[in-house]
Amino acid sequence: MDGQKRILVIKLSALGDFVQAMGPFAAIRAHHPQAKITLLTTKPFVVLAEQSPYFDDIWVDSRPRPWEVAGLMRLRKRLRSVKFDMVYDLQTSDRSSSYFHIMGDPPWSGIAHNCSHPHANPDRDLMHTVERQAEQLAMAGIAVTPSADLSWAKADVARFHLPARYALMVPGGAPHRPVKRWPADRFALVANHLASRGVTPLLLGTADDEDQIKVVTNNCPAALSLSGRTNFPDIIGLARDAVGAVGNDTGPMHLIAATGCPSVVLFSADSDPGLCAPRGPVAVLRRDDLGTLEVDAVLAALTEGPAALR
Questions:
Q1: Could you identify which of 46, 58, 222, 293 might form a hypothetical disulfide with 287, taking C-beta atoms 3.0 to 4.6 angstroms apart as the criterion?
Q2: Using one digit for the tens of pLDDT, what is the confidence trace for 1-16?
């Protein structure tokens, strides 16, 4: 309608960061209840964003390279097609900050040079993502940022014909960061322990994780693989009824933990849980070299404390 405020939210990637932006998304919507809010994101997150109650429109940023002139011109044209009353840059990267000037310096929350609502904390990069984004929004006038709430996500997980009791396992991760992966044969030992307790190990992943998943399924006959068969809402739906979960420091574990599923997340020296650990009922186990992480330590975390199997 005429006079309706237009708000742009920028969150391009990655999955864990996108999940940890759910609280800020909700805060922005609550602060601008009558505004038309557009999300600028990347293709993998469109389905999740469309299901969420936070946005009226979704724009896809293909992130064209500097030499992809046609793509850059299309992006420039789209960013300039609307006069936004406020932009919340939750990506806060060099790329997203460059959009500030492309768009003609609109009211802007982020770290772009000379923006109107800067996140003026020189130690912002030492903060956990959740607290960092909450502080950014507070400096832009949004005082309260809630925890992530994924209760709105819808998925038809009945099609998987699930066992009565199952635990989720995520043995893979980014293929370009292999040091973030606990050895797959250790996951197989955990899977067999779960199976001995009447809990079916349910493996999640993509084609990039097939080698790890096959090690588990080959060594644990009770394990079931849903590799390549789930989207992000499916993972949320599966997590709601899982008795627990264990996995490497990778995006799906953020989705799983945010549902309230007790989770054990494994970190190497390649990432810092103080900056990016999933939020929820999570036990974090960290070793500089994940090859030194003992199976017994993982089993103990699955049976004790906040990540104990339900």
A1: 293
A2: 458 999 999 999 999 9
